[in-house]
Write a structure and sequence with these properties.
The chain has 141 residues and is mostly helical. It is built from 5 helices and no strands. The two termini are 19 Å apart.
Length: 141
């Protein structure tokens, strides 16, 4: 059996996820996130630091979408999965991945690193939305 991976869908997911991250951490929750992280709102990051962060974000988004695409493709061999439909597949992929892999790490960071619950909500919310968006793109293609 061969896994069918759509590279175009992965690339689209990378771009869209980058945009979602920008919107999430800039106009939507940028000020609150920065405050919770203890950042000075008047201090602008150096351009080289900004570009380095963006480059690593793109690499991270590429790995994220590529691995999630493989995960979704592998589950297509489970009997009855195709009858669930794309919406159910998107929701189950995103929610179960978030519950099993993202939420525990965020909970640990909140408790052990003494992060605020507000920061927990901002970061965990982003990861759930990101998973939903990327899973939807990968499932619909």
């Amino acid at each position: 059996m061969e896994l069918k991976i759509n590279i175009v869908a992965i690339l689209i997911a990378v771009v869209v996820n980058f945009i979602v991250g920008f919107i999430w951490y800039t106009p939507l929750f940028g000020k609150a996130w920065g405050k919770e992280m203890g950042q000075d709102p008047n201090m602008k990051p150096d351009k080289s630091v900004l570009f380095k962060g963006m480059a690593f974000m793109v690499i991270g988004n590429l790995l994220f979408a590529w691995v999630l695409a493989h995960n979704i493709a592998a589950w297509q061999f489970v009997p009855g999965i195709k009858e669930m439909g794309p919406l159910a597949n998107t929701l189950s992929t995103a929610v179960f991945t978030w519950l099993g892999f993202y939420l525990p790490g965020q909970l640990g960071a909140t408790v052990w690193e003494n992060n605020s619950w507000k920061l927990f909500a901002i970061n965990s919310g982003y990861h759930l939305v990101s998973l939903l968006v990327v899973a939807a793109i990968l499932t619909m293609f």
